[in-house]
Amino acid sequence: MNRFATALRHLREYFALWLGLASLGLGCMLWTLIAMPAEWILPKPLARRFGRNGVMLGFRLYLWWLEVLGVARFNLEALDVLRDGPPLIIAPNHPTRLDALMVLSRLPRVVCVTKASLIDSFLMGAGARLAGYIRNDWFLGTSALSIEALGEGQHVLIFPEGTRTERPPIDPVRGSVGVVASRAGVAVQTVIIETDSAFLGKGWGWLRRPDMPMHISFRLGERIEAPHDSRELPAKLEASFRRQLEGVHLPSVFEETAAPLQVSGS
């Protein structure tokens, strides 16, 4: 009976996972049908606001749906205090594929530095272009557009590691965040993402089932003022993350089971 109950639970979790992923794909397709003509019809400033608010509301609805399905529990409210604040570089650690989605679900004034492959894709490209997100494959252009967005009073979302964390708690921080912070003269707000699951971490397949529900929590970390010398920031930022993540267990993809974690607010 125990084996039957376990098998039934796993089957239910697989169904919830697949339904959640299918919902994300369907939602992105529907938004693409709206974003493609909107990008051409609307004046650029209005298109940017419409695109960013649409992304925020759509992703917030999606995260709610994942909670309804029992896939995950989210505690993201810590980000809300940034909504009406000054322009900042928002710099989270990056354990999963969902990290940008979660940040964008709370803040409407965020310009995301995004993988070029996503901006070029059919599924997400139109929405990303409508929102004015910045592709990451052109160093000088990426930095210039990020500085421009900050000058307009926006927040810029940059993952300092450049990609998802391979060796928790943090991988080496890249230099681009220092260049943008220094030239724009804005602070870097670190954001600490805690999770008790390696779901969609580096090396995790889309259809691999995690233990459910997962718990993911955000908290605001240290705010580091703009450096005079951009070369100083990467080491300083990495050291800051290591201090703030000390004692936090971020599961590795290669672990069979996640060690229990008391996530903030969960």
Explained architecture:
The chain has 266 residues and is of the alpha/beta class. It has one domain (2-244). Helices cover 44% and strands 14% of the residues. The protein has helices spanning 2-41, 44-69, 99-104, 116-119, 125-130, 139-151, 176-184, 233-244, and strands spanning 72-75, 89-92, 110-114, 134-135, 155-157, 188-195, 214-224. It has a 7-stranded mixed sheet, with helices on both faces.
Share of residues in helices = 40-55%
What oligomeric state best describes the polypeptide chains here? single chain
The gyration radius over C-alpha positions equals 19 Å
Q: What is the strand tally?
A: 7
What is the residue-averaged pLDDT? 90
Order of helices and strands: HHEEHEHHEHEHEEH
SS summary, helix count: 8
* Strand coverage percent: 5-15%
Characterize the main sheet. Answer: 7 strands, mixed
State the shape: globular
Report the uncertain regions.
256-266
Helix vs. strand class: alpha/beta
Please describe the structure with a list of short key phrases separated by commas or semicolons.
disordered C terminus; seven-stranded mixed sheet; alpha/beta; 7 strands; single chain; 266 residues
How is this fold's topology laid out?
Layout: H1 2-41, H2 44-69, E1 72-75, E2 89-92, H3 99-104, E3 110-114, H4 116-119, H5 125-130, E4 134-135, H6 139-151, E5 155-157, H7 176-184, E6 188-195, E7 214-224, H8 233-244
Parallel strand pairs: 1-7, 2-5, 2-6, 3-4, 3-5
Antiparallel strand pairs: 6-7
Helix pairs in contact: 1-2, 6-7
